[in-house]
Each structure stands twice: as structure tokens, then as C-alpha cells.
Amino acid sequence: MNAVLLISALIGATLILVRGTIFRPLQQRFALFRCSMCTGTWVGFAAGASGVVSVGQGRVIDTIVVGAATSFLALAADAVLLKLLGDPSEEKP
Fold first, then answer.
1. Of 59, 71, 72, 88, whose CA is between 20 and 30 Å from 18?
2. Can you spell out the DSSP letters for 40-78?
3. Domain residue spans of the chain
4. In degrees, to the nearest 5, what angle opens at C-alpha 41 toward C-alphas 37 and 44?
5. DSSP state of 73
6. 21 near 43, Cβ under 8 Å?
7. Which residues does 23 contact at the CB level (< 8 Å), separation at least 6?
8. Phi then psi for 53, rounded to 5 degrees?
9. Looking at residue 56, what DSSP letter applies?
10. CB-CB contact of 17 with 76 (8 Å)
11. 91 pLDDT exceeds 80?
């Protein structure tokens, strides 16, 4: 249960970085912050490398596994939310 909550938090952090209007200057300046898969990878790498989320296989394997899982799950969550809610950048004035 704890791991599910932590992975959910990582996905949430990724989506905030990619879709949050407060991070618009970063999104406009760096392509990394426009892609949920790319940002999810680095958020997951940071969580795995720091030991926040661990799969118990050593720091390097934890980093790779958590980075890959966060990347995939953030991409899936972003796609589902875009389908359900629409893309806010495509709103008509």
C-alpha cells in the first residue's frame, strides 16, 4: 500500500510539472517539462536514487526500475486525463 501511494505521488508530481500553469516558464524554456514521459523518468530516477522509493534490489536497480515505472505510469495517466478532460492548451478564447 505504501508503494502505491508513493508511486501515485510521483505521478502527481510529474503531472504538476508538465501540466501545471505555475511551471509554464519552465515548460516554455525546456522541452523536458512538456513531456510527461520524459519528466516522469527523471522524477522516478530522483526518487529511486534518493531511496524514497525502493524495490529492494540496490540503489542502481531501484533508480532504473522506479524511473521506468514512473515514466510509463505518468504517460498513461496523462493520456487518460487528456482524453477525459481535454487539453487545456487547446481551449478556444
1. 59
2. HHHHHHHHHHHTSS--SS-HHHHHHHHHHHHHHHHHHHH
3. 2-86
4. 130
5. H
6. no
7. 16, 17, 33
8. -120, 130
9. S
10. no
11. no
